[in-house]
User: What shape does this take?
Amino acid sequence: MNGTLNKWVNSFDDQKRELFVNTLFQIIQATNASTFYDLTGDWPKKAVAVLGAIRDIDDETRKFVFQTIRALFALAVKNIREIGSENSQ
Assistant: This one.
């Protein structure tokens, strides 16, 4: 997982990385959570707050964030498959 995250983070320039982190922080901040437990507790209410925050983001940034998250998942799947094929040899 560490390798996946490192590859993913390093695939973006500083400006894109900053945009992603700031936007993600803005979305999480909308939930008023100060801990991970706060974020997962009362998740239906938090989900409404997250969706509201996502709606407030401009279209271009929203598209970038979703593409970035999809890229992370694609990279994770690729790395899992590679590890699985190495272990089966």
Remarks:
- Residues 31 and 49 are 5 Å apart (CA to CA).
